[in-house]
Amino acid sequence: MTMVLETVAGAGVTGTLTLTVREARLLCPGVRHVVLTDEGGRALPTFTPGSHIAVNWAEGRHNSYSLTGPSIEPDHYAISVRLDENGHGGSRWVHDLQPGQTVRVSRPRSAFAPILNARHHILVAGGIGVTPMLSHVRAALEWGRSFEVIYSFRDRQGAHADELAALCGDRIVTVSTPEELREALLPKLGDQPLGTHVYTCGPAPMIAAVAEWARECGWPPGRVHSEAFGAGPLPEGNPFAAKLGRTGMIVPVPSGTSLLEALLDKGITVPNLCRQGVCGECRLSVRGGEVEHRDLFLTDEEKASGDSIMPCVSRAVGDRLELEL
After folding, report:
1. How far is CA 110 from the centre of its chain?
2. Mind spelling out the 3-state secondary structure of the chain?
3. Which residues share a beta bridge with 32?
4. Which positions ≥6 away from 6 have C-beta within 8 Å?
5. What PROSITE patterns does this protein's entry cite (predicted)?
6. What does each C-alpha distance from 197 to 81, 115, 128, 148, 226 come to in angstroms?
7. Taking the complete model, does pTM exceed 0.70, yes or no?
8. Would you write out the chain's pLDDT as a tens digit for each of its 325 residues?
9. CA-closest candidate to residue 152, choices 171, 180, 122, 132
């Protein structure tokens, strides 16, 4: 590991690690597992279960991937990446990595950590959403926490399924359809003592369904946690202009171009990371105009207040938006 301690342009990443690919292999169709190590064999920074690293795959371009391996002074970081044929190229870049190549990554960050005083943890994974659950399970086993897992995946698409089964023993149930997930999860949601928390990572519809089932069973929102993949394919949207409140500068935002990209193209620094409306890194304050919120980061209350925007995915409703920049 080499601590570069640099600021990556437009990324807001203040500490970057340069690591070497030790292993790269296909886990299941479309999912590649990559193991990164320090060239000198030193231990890597410890991380909180559910953490991710941002992989720098092009100048100013990063994709975030959950860490799947051990979290305490690990000798490697491991990520599993699903190939997105319609993405911007980050997952393809990871799929093309070969042993011996060097990769720049951020230090681990966590927005999906377990609640340490919870009495029981229900972990619900859908597809590649299994990746953060692996570190949750490893930590639960290490610290003796009570947990169970429901893993939903399609036939032959179960990345890490065997590894997870070996870790969990009889504490895992696998399903393959939304109906089977509902059948497996609803009884658990309806029969849980205070202090149980549920965590979901997977496609947005699955996350929404689990949250709705929990609400119907009387769960308070504070015991329901989730991490989404991203906002998904979005329409190109209408063109609009962003006025920078401090300078009066007008930044045109064409259809098909994000507000974030338009700002960066004008040389305006905006910290950003996932570019999928998930991480919250690029959040900007809004002075005027109405926002078409497309992100998965802001709460319903924050969206209703209209004073913030995630420029990586969200746009103006009308033809003008004024920003606190």
Report:
1. 9
2. CEECCCCCCCCCCCCEEEEEEEEEEEEECCEEEEEEECCCCCCCCCCCCCEEEEEEEECCEEEEEECCCCCCCCCCEEEEEECCCCCCCHHHHHHCCCCCCEEEEECCEECCCCCCCCCEEEEEEEHHHHHHHHHHHHHHHHHCCCEEEEEECCCCCCCCHHHHHHHHHHHEEEECCHHHHHHHHHHHHCCCCCCEEEEEEECHHHHHHHHHHHHHCCCCHHHEEEEECCCCCCCCCCCEEEEECCCCCEEEECCCCCHHHHHHHCCCCCCCCCCCCCCCCCCEEEEECCEECCCCCCCHHHHHHCCEECCCCCEECCCEEEECC
3. 26, 81
4. 16
5. 2FE2S_FER_2 (PS51085), FAD_FR (PS51384)
6. 27, 8, 21, 11, 11
7. yes
8. 433 333 333 333 446 899 999 999 999 999 999 999 999 999 999 999 999 998 999 887 788 899 999 999 999 999 999 998 877 788 999 999 999 999 999 999 887 899 989 999 999 999 999 999 999 999 999 999 999 999 999 988 899 999 999 999 999 999 999 999 999 999 999 987 789 999 999 988 899 999 999 999 999 988 999 887 665 556 788 999 999 999 999 999 999 899 999 999 899 989 887 777 877 889 999 999 999 998 878 888 899 999 999 999 999 999 999 999 9
9. 180
Q: Residue 42 in contact with residue 29, Cβ under 8 Å?
A: no
